[in-house]
Write a structure and sequence with these properties.
Elements lengths: L16 H9 L65 E3 L13 E5 L5 H9 L3 E7 L2 E3 L13 E4 L6 E4 L4 H18 L3 E5 L14 H17 L3 E5 L5 H4 L5 E5 L11 H5 L4 E5 L4 H8 L5 E4 L9 E2 L2
Parallel strand pairs: 1-2, 2-3, 3-7, 7-8, 8-9, 9-10, 10-11
Antiparallel strand pairs: 4-6, 5-6, 11-12
Helix pairs in contact: 3-4
Length: about 325
């Protein structure tokens, strides 16, 4: 998991959470895409947590939640052709420092809040596609919408990332409108896809009793939300669930699969014609490119702060 610091401009928005919840629950049974059904999806593996392998129940809501941003539910966006990334596309990942728009890469991955619509347009004119970085699984106290996150869904701090705390991903009633607003921001700026970060809370010390089933359900819901916003969506890390989620994702973003000897697991994406945008930090390019090139991963060497520095595999 990596994330980055950012100077943010505020955009405060508030809407009664109850209205958003009513809008979501009013959808008749059977009308939601299978990608949002979680543990009931045909491609889901056996789940941990409950004896019957289902996702755990979220705790009952308590108190009065902080109002969420504007009511942006999972209603489909206006019809248009959604971007389909291709295996072998080159990429640049920059989430800190002065943005360098001259890097020779097919795809850029930039921060949802700090990248501007003008910068996205500039990249489009140069023939690039642009992915929007969004933290969907952790709270960030430096974002302009941070006050909209109710205290009851904030878990333990993320080790090594000050100001960030895990979210209770079972509380989709509270998280959906917050994430929908962030994805709408990406779409409004012209981004083509989204990288949802921190989608492996169940495998970390989150402060909540999350199961693999909870994570699969949440990740499918995020994928559905992104698609309805007109965005391609990628699986960030969560290598253990790659096979179960490749069907609802359009690409993968991975950190250090070579270091942890996990790159073979991501072949389910390239075999399905979906790219894996991969970065290593500690290993030099000369040591991992020979491993990842035969797997057709789009591999680069980056510094951990994800500035403009980049060394791609040949």
């Amino acid at each position: 998991m990596t994330r980055r610091t950012a100077a943010i401009s505020a955009a405060g928005v508030a809407v009664a959470l109850a209205l958003t919840w009513l809008a979501v629950t009013a959808i008749p049974d059977g009308t939601r895409p299978a990608a949002a059904t979680g543990a009931g999806s045909p491609d889901a593996p056996a789940l941990t947590g409950r004896p019957d392998g289902t996702a755990s129940e979220p705790p009952a809501a308590t108190g009065t939640a902080t109002p969420a941003p504007a009511a942006l539910t999972s209603a489909p966006a206006a019809p248009h052709e959604r971007w389909q990334p291709r295996v072998g596309q080159t990429w640049q990942w920059q989430l800190s420092g002065d943005l360098d728009l001259t890097v020779d890469a097919d795809v850029y991955n930039l921060d949802a809040f700090t990248a501007t619509a003008e910068q996205v347009t500039t990249l489009h004119r140069a023939g690039r596609h642009v992915i929007c970085y969004v933290n969907v699984g952790a709270y960030e106290d430096f974002r302009p919408d941070q006050a909209a996150f109710p205290a009851e869904i904030l878990g333990r701090p993320l080790d090594g990332w000050p100001g960030e705390r895990w979210l209770d991903i079972r509380r989709w009633d509270l998280l959906e409108p917050l994430l929908a607003e962030r994805l709408a921001r990406c779409r409004q700026k012209g981004f083509d896809g989204v990288e949802p970060d921190n989608v492996d809370a169940y495998a970390n010390d989150s402060g909540f009793p999350l199961t693999a089933g909870d994570q699969l359900q949440f990740n499918r819901r995020v994928a559905d939300l992104a698609h309805n916003a007109g965005l391609a969506v990628g699986l960030k890390n969560d290598v253990e669930q790659a096979a179960a989620l490749v069907g609802v994702m359009d690409f993968a973003v991975n950190e250090e699969c070579a270091r942890y000897r996990e790159c073979d697991t991501l072949a389910v994406f390239t075999d399905a014609g979906k790219p894996v945008f991969h970065a290593e930090y500690d290993l030099p390019a000369g040591s991992f490119c020979a491993q990842t090139s035969p797997l057709r991963l789009s591999s680069i060497h980056k510094r951990l702060n994800l500035d403009a520095y980049r060394v791609p595999c040949p």
